[in-house]
Amino acid sequence: MKKICLLFCLLLSSCASDPSRDGSPSADDEPAASRLLYPYESSIQCKGCHADQYQQYEESMHAKAFTNPLFNAQYFNDVVPRALRNPGLVSEARTCIACHAPVAFMNYSGLISTPAQASRFETGVTCDFCHTLGGYAENGDFQQVASGKKQGPFQTTGASTFHSEYSGFVQVGDFCGRCHNATNHIGVEVKSTYYEWRESSYGKRGFACQECHMNKNGFLRNGNAEFERGQAAHMNIGNISKKQKEQGKLYNHSFPGAHSISQLQDALPLDFKIGSKTADADGRFPFALLVNNERSGHKMPSGSSDLRFMWLVVNALSEAGEKIPVVFQSSMSAIGPDYSIAGSSPDDATILQNDVPSGARVYRVVLVNNAGRQSLYQYDAVKNTFDNRLDATEIRKEGYYLKLPANFSGKVNLEANLYYRGAPSSFTSLMQVADFSPVLVASKKKQITIETTHASQK
Ligand code: HEC
Ligand code: HEC
Ligand code: HEC
Ligand code: HEC
Ligand code: HEC
Questions:
Q1: What is d(CA 179, CA 170) in angstroms, rounded to the nearest whole number?
Q2: Contact status, residue 78 vs residue 379, Cβ threshold 8 Å
């Protein structure tokens, strides 16, 4: 046992951070790395034989789940100071660690309150954490397999098995579900990707997250998941590598999502639907815009829906280049603020600010705190008051009209753009981290011809 631990410490520079030396608070229940209850192997140890998986993983948000500056800022500058004042928040703070640094969560039962404390463990969602995950306990806690063998998707036998064990669990949505769904300490569901997927037609027919997020493109192309093929491991030791079977389906570990611009582009195609050729007596020319979420297996935006949002900007120009006003027809009832239109809620002035042009259609979730105000802090949410996000596989039809000048006829150039933003700039500046730039998800142009409306109608 001791030998393994020594090797561990040589490989893991983090083991060197002895609390008495780095000045971080030392608590009695803090285990030394050599006494870890769950001694997970570090991801760098997989690199030699699984170089491809490692390379993809290294850049993924799973690897950066803890070092991610936005997470770090919110956790250390807001959650921890508040949990130190209010013991009621300690368990909530521990849940942050459960998902963003599960190895630390498994091995330390206290509140991780400094970066030095965290650095004693490998943070992020690590290779070995995922590949020794056997399931979840009734209370949602992670369960590590007793065999210690790496859980993999292939039914290999004999010599080729090496250190792996076949697992059906790594291939299903439930595997991802525990971390991609969350309820805060007040009982409000603040993240629901897994439930959204489970209720979708993808979830119902067992089409797992992995099929979209771990194929070589990271999404379905023309409805198909395309996979790389090859060996699961490339060992440079002796001839063992020659014995490895070529697999028809290798799973990619980059897990693209909200942080990869190329991934978001074209994720939700747009289309115009024009029903009439003439405007009404008041010069209103109605049309619809179709926003298509057939390609994702859950609502969009999903994940951190406390922070993420999308919006539509629709413009119209006459052939002469004059701007024609475009009005969004809200179908919402007029009780309370209409959060589906930017600028309608009193909180938009502080939260959305100028990120979204006033009057634009917004897709978002609105969580409110106990003062009844919109809050971007998932752990302060007492209620989810609004959710107009696009459902999985939904094609949303949005009604608009042009406000045409009297007796207008001729060509009109319509343009619709759908944008996505990971978090409002008001929030990133508060957290003092780099801004998420807005991503143009989809763009659609269409030229239409409008026939004269007869003045006699007036
Ligand atoms: C978030 C969890 C997660 C992390 C982190 C993770 N994997 Fe995987 N890995 C999976 C899943 C899930 C599959 C199988 C997908 C399926 O069959 O549907 C897989 C498949 C594999 C396979 C089988 C071959 C292949 O490429 O499909 C190997 C080998 C592997 N992972 C190694 C690694 C290594 C090495 C790392 C770290 C560098 C790593 N994994 C990190 C979840 C993870
Ligand atoms: C010394 C080389 C070596 C190292 C280091 C190594 N592996 Fe492997 N691994 C292999 C070989 C060989 C296989 C079998 C490949 C096959 O069946 O084709 C394998 C298979 C796997 C599989 C199962 C793929 C399947 O068959 O379903 C997983 C998962 C896996 N390794 C994860 C890891 C993780 C996680 C680490 C780091 C903690 C790691 N491996 C480190 C050589 C290695
Ligand atoms: C049918 C394919 C498909 C399935 C199934 C699917 N997703 Fe997605 N997912 C997408 C697409 C497309 C996007 C949007 C583009 C992007 O961010 O990659 C996305 C985005 C995401 C995001 C970023 C959300 C955001 O708003 O930024 C997360 C997190 C995610 N998926 C996790 C999951 C999990 C977990 C599951 C299973 C419970 C799952 N996905 C199932 C296709 C899928
Ligand atoms: C141990 C918890 C855990 C497990 C298991 C897990 N994830 Fe994640 N995942 C996370 C965390 C935490 C993040 C966010 C990291 C960040 O942004 O700080 C994340 C990020 C992602 C992203 C990137 C989202 C973005 O915005 O860029 C995708 C896609 C994703 N996960 C899909 C999956 C899929 C598919 C599975 C199952 C094969 C899975 N995850 C399993 C915890 C987990
Ligand atoms: C059940 C698992 C889970 C818990 C608990 C959890 N998170 Fe996360 N967190 C995730 C996942 C998964 C994502 C990525 C979702 C996405 O891409 O939209 C994420 C994303 C984030 C992000 C956005 C990062 C970015 O760059 O986009 C922040 C900030 C964050 N979490 C902070 C926290 C804090 C603070 C806590 C504790 C109060 C916490 N999380 C608790 C799973 C969790």
A1: 14
A2: no
**Cβ-contact 408, 322 below 8 angstroms:** no
Write out residues with Cβ below 6 Å of ligand 2: 41, 45-46, 48-50, 127-128, 131, 150, 152-154, 156, 160, 162-164, 231-233, 235, 240, 244-245
* Model pLDDT for residues 401-446, shown as the tens digit of each residue: 999 998 899 999 999 999 999 999 999 999 999 999 999 999 999 9
pLDDT digit string (tens) for 290-337? 999 999 999 999 999 999 999 999 999 999 999 999 998 876 555 678
Residue from 179, 212, 252, 307 whose mutation best tests the ligand 4 pocket (most atoms within 8 A of CB):
179
d(CA 227, CA 225): 7
Residue 385 C-alpha from the chain's centroid: 21
Do residues 232 and 127 make contact, with C-beta atoms less than 8 angstroms apart? no
CB atoms within 10 A of CB 451: 12
Specify the residue for token string 């859980």. Answer: 151
- Which are the contacts of 39, defined by CB distance < 8 A and separation ≥ 6? 4, 5, 8
Query: Which of 166, 145, 128 is CA-nearest to residue 50?
Result: 128
Nearest ligand to the C-alpha of residue 439? 3
For residue 256 the two structure tokens come to 């693209």
Tell me the C-alpha distance between 259 and 218, whole Å.
Answer: 13
Report the alpha-carbon distance of residue 129 to residue 71 in Å, rounded. Answer: 20
Rounded CA gap, 210 and 225, in Å? 10
Encode 371-397: b = buried (16+ Cβ within 10 Å), e = exposed.
Answer: eeebbbbbbbbbebbbebbbebebebe
The Cα–Cα gap between 403 and 324 comes to: 7
**Calpha distance 18→114 (Å, rounded):** 13
Residue 87, burial from CB neighbour count under 10 angstroms (0-12, 13-18, 19+): exposed
The number of the ligand nearest the C-alpha atom of 195 reads: 3
